[in-house]
């Protein structure tokens, strides 16, 4: 896209500076960052892996940047990365990914918090490390991961993360913990659509959703604007059927939030998940609010897509990029971000 943002590393990270001695500066900081990003994406676990990656991919790297002094050693990569200023580095990454999102037209961003596996060190009095991030399903990337304090409030962290992201025309999903007015207002401000799960938090909303769908089912959805979508599939040794309903009648929506508490509410949704495992059937109903127009197929795929941050993102962080291991290294901040 010639008229869109330039999705290049040089454009978004060329401004980064680090306090390095001029007479020993054999490698450009942008070159170090470029090889670090490429190596981490290829599966490297740290500076030693970057040094291994560099010579193996030297021909390709030379098409990106000049390397007058060759590929930097692992100690050089480590020194360069550890001196980067976290705020500048993070902003560069967010701007870079905003450009990538425009180029690839990413759609679904799922937000959630997680505690990094094996990040606690009880012998040193170090608690497990909590992280809050957004999962861009179209690009398989974790956006803006923020390391929080052990006693940090995830409810307040999510709106802060949303304010950093380019939300325009994105579809954002959050779990029931973040079914908060402040969160929805932030997404409205960012011009994003959303699907927000509702359980017992807040209880009046959950009760209103249950009552609305109970009444609709009792009347077989007669005379009420609605849509339905269903999937059925065998998976992992079990059979699953999911039925999705959306209600978008103005009168129904007015009853759900009589004081207009949830801005620009477009529909409410319900999913009934029926499973048969080892001959034993089970059923579960879940409810959501959304600013979508009410298409049940879109609602259903969005609800299923949210589980990417519950399953794919932890697998990517813990097993592929080994984020708990990186947090224990001397360059922990930059490597965990990469």
Question: How are the secondary structure elements laid out?
Answer:
Blueprint: H1 9-13, H2 29-41, H3 47-56, H4 58-61, H5 74-82, H6 86-104, E1 108-115, E2 130-136, E3 141-147, H7 154-164, E4 171-174, H8 181-189, E5 193-198, H9 203-218, E6 226-235, E7 238-247, H10 250-256, E8 267-277, E9 280-290, H11 296-306, H12 308-320, H13 323-327, H14 332-337
Parallel strand pairs: 1-4, 4-5
Antiparallel strand pairs: 1-2, 2-3, 5-9, 6-7, 7-8, 8-9
Helix pairs in contact: 2-3, 2-5, 3-5, 7-8
Description:
This protein is an alpha+beta fold. 41% of the residues lie in helices and 22% in strands. The protein has helices at 9-13, 29-41, 47-56, 58-61, 74-82, 86-104, 154-164, 181-189, 203-218, 250-256, 296-306, 308-320, 323-327, 332-337; strands spanning 108-115, 130-136, 141-147, 171-174, 193-198, 226-235, 238-247, 267-277, 280-290. α2 (29-41) crosses α3, α3 (47-56) packs across α5 (74-82) and α7 packs parallel to α8 (181-189). The two termini are 26 Å apart.
Q: What is the overall number of helices?
A: 14
Structural class: alpha+beta
Q: Which oligomerization state do the chains in this entry correspond to? A: single chain
Low-pLDDT windows of residues: 324-332
Could you write a compact summary of the structure shown?
With about 350 residues, the protein is of the alpha+beta class. The chain is built from 14 helices and nine strands. A nine-stranded mixed sheet has the order 3-2-1-4-5-9-8-7-6, sandwiched between helices.
